[in-house]
Amino acid sequence: MTPVDDDAPPASPAESLALIQQERAAVASTVSINPLAYYLPWGLAWMVGYGLLFVRYGPDGRIFVDLPDWLPLAVLFVCMALAMVSTLVVSARRGRGVEGRSSWQGTAYGLSWFLAFVGVGSTLGRFAPLLPDQEQGLLWGSVSVGTVAVMYMAGSAIWLSRDMFILGAWLTVINIAGVALGPGWHSLLISAGGGGGLCLFGAVLWLRGRRRG
User: Over the chain, what HEC string results?
Assistant: First the structure.
């Protein structure tokens, strides 16, 4: 019986190219993630949380559903915390085994999100109490969404992703529109257009990946 040498070089350039493509596919499968795992949790958090804010604190102080005062914000924060945990888990799995420039890019980008919201929270916590209650909510919501939008557009330059820029620009547009319309309407736009947009964005990327695969 003739022994088989598994370490023997490919017999032809075609086999070499096929082997390279096979290895690239194997590496990509280990570092790629389902985009729905990133965007769906945040989309649902915004849809549910801001949706409850709209029905409880509607335009001109209108109450569509008489919920407890504390419930909408509590639900929003819980949903966002769960989305954050999901993001951290997915990011950790994706970054496992990745070194060098890509590793630093991911780490720096993640820290930028954290530091951005620490800065936003400390600043708004100082000045928001000077405004009426409804204007406080609008200020917190609009600045937070605006920060998310800017971070996505910055991420598009890091990862060379036009899709991320489009998402950031879309969030900026509906955020500006919500501020112009005022309290209540802002929550509705962020729930439907922001949360729904994040879910749709993740679904589009997922479908595109399936077609390529």
Answer: CCCCCCCCCCCCHHHHHHHHHHHHHHHHHHHCCCHHHHHHHHHHHHHHHHHHHHHHCCHHHCCCCCCCCCHHHHHHHHHHHHHHHHHHHHHHHHHCCCCCHHHHHHHHHHHHHHHHHHHHHHHHHHHHHHCCHHHHHHHHHHHHHHHHHHHHHHHHHHHCCHHHHHHHHHHHHHHHHHHHHCCCHHHHHHHHHHHHHHHHHHHHHHHHHHHHC
